């Protein structure tokens, strides 16, 4: 990918007008620069929006099956490069190789899934009250979609926004997160090789406050899809709605797993460990609160501590748990570990940066378990975004449910129970956009809607599956009196 480090605008690989660049370092070994990208300005973003506006009509009028052919081809090109992209993702973002390979595969699958949908973008025909009239609806693209994405799933999230946007006939400008932009440029490369017309997809790297903000502000963009922190997302939501734009924001989480007294403590601990420590705890759906019935609490804690201590930490290419993405994310996790202890929580596992040759320079932290946690402590209320699980003891199922809901977030929630009635009460009452029974809070299927409740989402539109397409289409109703 010779031009992969430049912006992709109007079908060309171009440098920023600023002449400035930034380096992405390997979080497992920060002295290693993985790649250098354009430190772009608002003017670079403007040029990308203008290209997307100019390409709108041609792409909207390209037949759906032809759009689908290009997406399918791009997915196949990504599949041919899966190993290379997996390693790039590990080197930029830090996650473990199997996690990165799974994420790259998800992006490939998303392109193939929406490629199939491109032939099926119909409307509905209804009987008209008037004679000689055909009454029907058709779906049209919204226009130019502005996508702003986070670093933690740097290829899957851009793919799950971009593929439905293109399928529905929109043109797109995208600003990837600066910690791991390489895989998004690889998508641009694949679409370019697959024959996507110039200007239909444009990628500009650089700061959110200039590039991202210009994408949202510019009168040429019609829809804004943002995934990231609640703090930034709420600002983006206000900015986009002030401009009268269609907007969806998917944000942070503080996801609980409720462990009922009927649960097998070892199985529950495995579920919590996998949801809480997988991807180094850097998933929006990561389990960060285990709410445990007192009858199984001690056994559960022992099992969870064993799970945490068994994890092999090191560079993601050949270890089970990679580093945090950056020094600031590591510092933030270590700060929360201090705060939790100051507030009276007891450290039961981890809590430190690990020692050893492989890990001494990188942004590694041990999988950490806190017990004796009250739900009003900051460790139980705020998104930590590291491999830290707070264990909270409750005396019955109702208290557990109430505790699970007693946060400002509502992204994913799971329950571990053998009791069918409890499982169904949890499904009914959990305030979360994703609810799971006897499963970890992380892990999503690509063909069903995804989105949060409360501060985890704007609750405007869902992503993924058919719901993902709806955001990028607008319906027109036709009365054709012949
Ligand atoms: P972030 O909010 O810091 O950044 C997200 C994106 O917004 C980045 O591309 C950033 O450059 C850009 N940005 C920053 N300031 C901006 C501004 N003023 N205007 C426009 N764009 C701006 O989030 P992050 O640290 O990259 O990602 C981690 C967060 O994302 C966590 O809170 C996590 O829970 C959340 N997340 C949510 C989901 C979900 O689907 N709910 C999925 C993944 C991550």
Task: Count the DSSP helices.
Answer: 15
Named CATH architecture of the largest domain: 3-Layer(aba) Sandwich
The CATH homology group name of the largest domain: Aldehyde Dehydrogenase, Chain A, domain 1
The whole-number mean of residue pLDDT values reads 97
Total number of beta strands? 21
End-to-end C-alpha gap: 54 Å
| CATH class label of the largest domain | Alpha Beta
C-alpha-based Rg, rounded: 23 Å
CATH-derived topology of the largest domain: Aldehyde Dehydrogenase, Chain A, domain 1
Task: Tell me the structural class.
Answer: alpha/beta
The portion of residues forming beta strands comes to 15-25%
Explain what this protein looks like in three dimensions.
- Helix 1 runs parallel beside helix 7 (208-217) and helix 2 packs across helix 6 (182-194).
- The chain has 482 residues and is of the alpha/beta class.
- The chain has helices at residues 42-60, 64-80, 82-93, 97-117, 156-167, 182-194, 208-217, 230-242, 265-277, 294-309, 327-342, 378-381, 397-405, 420-429, 465-471; strands spanning 7-9, 12-14, 21-26, 29-38, 125-126, 133-141, 144-148, 171-175, 201-203, 223-227, 246-250, 255-259, 287-293, 346-349, 368-371, 388-394, 409-410, 412-416, 434-437, 453-454, 473-481.
- The protein is built from 15 helices and 21 strands.
- Nicotinamide-adenine-dinucleotide binds next to helix 7 and helix 8.
What topology emerges from the helices and strands here?
Blueprint: E1 7-9, E2 12-14, E3 21-26, E4 29-38, H1 42-60, H2 64-80, H3 82-93, H4 97-117, E5 125-126, E6 133-141, E7 144-148, H5 156-167, E8 171-175, H6 182-194, E9 201-203, H7 208-217, E10 223-227, H8 230-242, E11 246-250, E12 255-259, H9 265-277, E13 287-293, H10 294-309, H11 327-342, E14 346-349, E15 368-371, H12 378-381, E16 388-394, H13 397-405, E17 409-410, E18 412-416, H14 420-429, E19 434-437, E20 453-454, H15 465-471, E21 473-481
Parallel strand pairs: 7-8, 7-10, 8-9, 10-11, 12-13, 12-18, 13-16, 15-16, 18-19
Antiparallel strand pairs: 1-2, 3-4, 5-6, 6-21, 14-15, 17-20
Helix pairs in contact: 1-7, 2-4, 2-6, 3-4, 4-5, 9-10
Bound molecules: nicotinamide-adenine-dinucleotide (NAD).
